[in-house]
Amino acid sequence: MVKEMIKRKPLIIGLVTVIAFYVVTNVLSNLNATIATFLAIGILVGFMVGENYKTGAINGALFGVIGALIVAIILVITYTLYGYGAYLGLIAPGLLLSFAINVIVAVVGGVVGAQVRIEIDSKDAAPEDKS
Q1: In 3D, which of 56, 36, 55 has the Cα closest to residue 46?
Q2: CB within 8 A of 6, min separation 6: which ones?
Q3: pLDDT 10s digits, 4-26
Q4: pTM of the full predicted structure?
Q5: Which residue of 43, 51, 110, 113 has the fewest CB atoms within a 10 Å radius of its CB?
Q6: 88-125 and 53-81 helices cross at what angle (nearest 10)?
Q7: In degrees rounded to 5, what are phi and psi of residue 32?
Q8: 83: left (phi over 0), alpha (psi -120 to 50) or beta
Q9: Which helix (H) or strand (E) holds 70?
Q10: Are the CB atoms for 98 and 29 separated by under 8 Å?
């Protein structure tokens, strides 16, 4: 049942977009907009899925887990290249907290995006009363 709820195309688009945004905002410009990025792209994934809020939450969670894992790996590689490899044990709790927050924000974004899509579709289906 859950297998039919997972949509691959929105997940792939979301993952590519979050990696691109993360590289541009954090690595190149040294700004940390990760939470806002996960929220915005979670809304995008939920909107593209748009069947119901449960499907939006599942796809948002899957996107959040995979995206946060990729972002954490990029961050570990970046720290290692900058010479902070010896401090990765001290940074690990922060990485785990960041991982959890990114997943939660992506789930919220998925639910919001699915709900927006449901509202838009319901307004399109309802006839307008012109009296």
Answers
A1: 56
A2: 58, 59, 62
A3: 677 788 888 888 998 898 888 87
A4: 0.83
A5: 51
A6: 150
A7: -105, 95
A8: left
A9: helix 53-81
A10: no
The span from the CA of 24 to the CA of 21, in Å, is 5
User: What is the rounded average pLDDT of the residues 104-129?
Assistant: 84
Residues 106, 60 contacting (CB under 8 angstroms): yes
Rounded (5°) CA angle 75-78-82: 140
Count CA within 13 A, CB hemisphere, residue 93: 1
Reading the block at residue 69, the tokens are 């894992």
How far apart are alpha carbons 123 and 77 in whole angstroms?
A: 47
Residue type present at position 126: A
Q: Which amino acid is at 100?
A: A
